[in-house]
């Protein structure tokens, strides 16, 4: 592409008259007079010319150096003599060179400037034209894309509508076919079920008749075998008893004196031990209402057994009663979960729970439903303690406040709550080692029943029992609520003995007096929980006696209680709990509230 450069508006300067190349820029001889006058003025101002030449040729250093050299050459040495003609030629030559060096052609400068302006204008027009061309191309491309997108959207909608119509027709046909098959299948299965029912009834009658015949024959056979076996056993027993009687008669005389001496010694020791225990129990009875730990265990297990086999089983077996109990139970559980550490919220939830169990604007509940609701309420409180108090021990306070008010207000709730407490904690709520027999003096039905009665539960993360750490934390959370209940002073009337403050002393006395409890890893954790809740208050109540108990506990976690055995044993959980017990003892001695 070619571009035309416009001419500049500035006028073209007039060129000077061409010079003769052989004269080095000098004028003709006809102008000799002007020339001589100019030359004479030039010679008169040599110093000024040197300065002007230097300033005009500052951009060209080589020209300036040449003129300087020529000036030096024009200076004639003193020992060289020239004719006047030579002097004139030299001076004319120097003057011509000087004029040539100082000359600037205006036309050439104008021509160069005009070329630059033309090129600049051409570049500007080319840039504007190209930008306009690009904008038009972009606009054309965008319009084409928009048109194609609209066309594509229209085609897609048409295809989608056709597919949707085809899908609806296909779905309709499929539904009609399915309905036809379902009707046919229902009819077929109705016939099949009828035939099966008829055959099952025939087979059941036949099997029942055969079973009665077999049972009758088996009964007769067993009766005959039993009579024969009893007769044989009776005969053998008589023979054995006869032999044993003869042997015992011989040994009786030999053992009589020895047994009399041993019995006398045993009676003496038993009498001394009994007198010692009576003195200790008398001292304890003077301090607080005392019941044995076996009695507390027996009462709690008996109450729990009576609840499960009585009201709870009766309500669950009756459809109407179960529906009413389930409706009220669903109101209880969420309210326990809404409890916060706010006095107004605690009072509001407590009154709502009391209103559910003892409605003021409605007839009282059926007694079995009321007892079962108390059972569910106690279970909800303990489960809430296992989850919330395990995570944050300060949540035991509001839960204990609600439980205390319920114990103080609701009939039969104290015994029900303590029975559930013993069920969830095992013997630690009393405390005592769980016996090998139940309260009816019969062995436990299975090992699992004994473990469950001891307070262990299944693991929530898999098969098997919970870990020792999880078991210890769960029991500790429940006992923290129990100790907080003991800490509250009743305002209306005294509570049951198991919820009175002296029970705190009883609990520590039993714990420190039984080595079977002390070697369990749970023991130091529960001791720490009790000290953390009521340790400082107990110091103000029992004074020096409580300090002695604390000293006994300190000895058990430092030097050992029996042949150097430490409380909690060698398990890692016991070691960690002993450190917490040490910190709690220091806080109590220093009067610092935990």
Q: Kindly state the percentage of residues in helix.
A: over 70%
**Residue runs with pLDDT of under 50 for 5 or more positions:** 1-64, 70-76
Fraction of residues in β-strands: under 5%
How large is the count of helical segments? 18
Basic shape: elongated
CATH topology of the domain at 291-489: Serine Threonine Protein Phosphatase 5, Tetratricopeptide repeat
CATH class group of the domain at 291-489:
Mainly Alpha
Q: How far is the N terminus from the C terminus?
A: 96 Å
Radius of gyration computed on alpha carbons: 60 Å
Biggest sheet descriptor: none
The count of DSSP E runs of length 2 or more, i.e. the number of strands, is 0
CATH superfamily of the domain at 291-489: GLE1-like
Quick check: average pLDDT?
A: 84
Element-level helix/strand string: HHHHHHHHHHHHHHHHHH
Query: Which structural class best describes the helix and strand composition?
Result: mainly alpha
Architecture (CATH level 2) name of the domain at 291-489: Alpha Horseshoe
């Amino acid at each position: 592409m070619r571009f035309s450069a416009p001419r500049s508006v500035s006028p073209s300067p007039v060129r000077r008259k061409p010079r003769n190349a052989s004269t080095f820029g000098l004028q003709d001889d006809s102008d000799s007079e002007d020339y001589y006058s100019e030359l004479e003025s030039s010679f008169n101002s040599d110093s000024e010319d040197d300065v002007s030449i230097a300033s005009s040729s500052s951009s060209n250093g080589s020209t300036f150096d040449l003129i300087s050299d020529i000036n030096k050459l024009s200076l004639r040495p003193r020992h060289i003599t020239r004719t006047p003609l030579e002097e004139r030629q030299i001076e004319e030559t120097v003057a011509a060179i000087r004029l040539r060096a100082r000359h600037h052609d205006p036309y050439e400068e104008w021509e160069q400037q005009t070329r630059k302006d033309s090129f600049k204008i051409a570049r500007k027009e080319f840039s504007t034209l190209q930008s306009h061309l690009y904008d038009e191309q972009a606009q054309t491309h965008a319009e084409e894309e928009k048109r194609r997108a609209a066309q594509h959207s229209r085609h897609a909608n048409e295809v989608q509508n056709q597919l949707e119509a085809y899908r609806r027709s296909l779905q309709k046909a499929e539904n009609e076919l399915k309905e036809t098959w379902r009707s046919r299948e229902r009819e077929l299965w109705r016939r099949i079920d009828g035939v099966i029912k008829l055959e099952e009834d025939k087979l059941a009658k036949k099997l029942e008749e055969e079973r009665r015949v077999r049972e009758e024959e088996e009964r007769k056979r067993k009766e005959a075998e039993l009579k024969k076996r009893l007769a044989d056993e009776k005969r053998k027993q008589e023979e054995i008893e006869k032999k044993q009687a003869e042997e015992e008669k011989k040994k009786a005389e030999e053992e009589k004196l020895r047994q009399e001496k041993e019995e006398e010694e045993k009676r003496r020791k038993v009498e001394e031990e009994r007198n010692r225990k009576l003195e200790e129990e008398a001292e304890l009875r003077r301090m607080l209402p005392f019941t044995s730990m076996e009695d507390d265990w027996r009462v709690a297990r008996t109450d729990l057994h009576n609840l499960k086999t009585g009201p709870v089983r009766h309500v669950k077996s009756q459809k109407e009663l179960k529906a009413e109990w389930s409706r009220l139970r669903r109101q209880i559980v969420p309210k326990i979960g809404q409890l916060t550490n706010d006095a107004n919220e605690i009072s509001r939830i407590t009154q709502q729970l009391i209103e559910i169990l003892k409605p003021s604007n409605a007839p009282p509940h059926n007694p079995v439903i009321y007892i079962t609701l108390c059972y569910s309420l106690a279970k909800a409180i303990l489960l809430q303690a296992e989850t919330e108090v395990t995570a944050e021990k300060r949540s035991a306070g509001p839960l204990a406040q609600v439980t205390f008010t319920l114990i103080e207000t609701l009939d039969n709730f104290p015994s029900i709550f303590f029975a559930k407490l013993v069920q969830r904690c095992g013997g630690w709520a009393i405390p005592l080692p769980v016996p090998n027999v139940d309260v009816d003096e019969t062995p436990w039905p299975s090992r699992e029943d004994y473990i469950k009665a001891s307070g262990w539960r299944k693991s929530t993360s898999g098969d098997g029992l919970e870990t020792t750490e999880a078991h210890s934390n769960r029991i500790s959370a429940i006992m923290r609520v129990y100790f907080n209940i003991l800490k509250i002073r009743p305002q209306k009337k005294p509570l049951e003995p198991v919820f009175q403050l002296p029970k705190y002393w009883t609990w520590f006395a039993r714990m420190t007096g039984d080595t079977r409890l002390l070697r369990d890893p749970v023991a130091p954790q529960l001791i720490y929980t009790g000290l953390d809740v009521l340790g400082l208050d107990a110091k103000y109540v029992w004074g020096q006696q409580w300090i002695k108990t604390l000293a006994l506990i300190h000895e058990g976690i430092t030097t050992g209680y029996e042949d150097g055995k430490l409380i909690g044993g060698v398990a890692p959980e016991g070691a960690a709990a002993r450190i917490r017990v040490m910190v709690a003892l220091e806080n109590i001695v220093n009067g610092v509230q935990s």
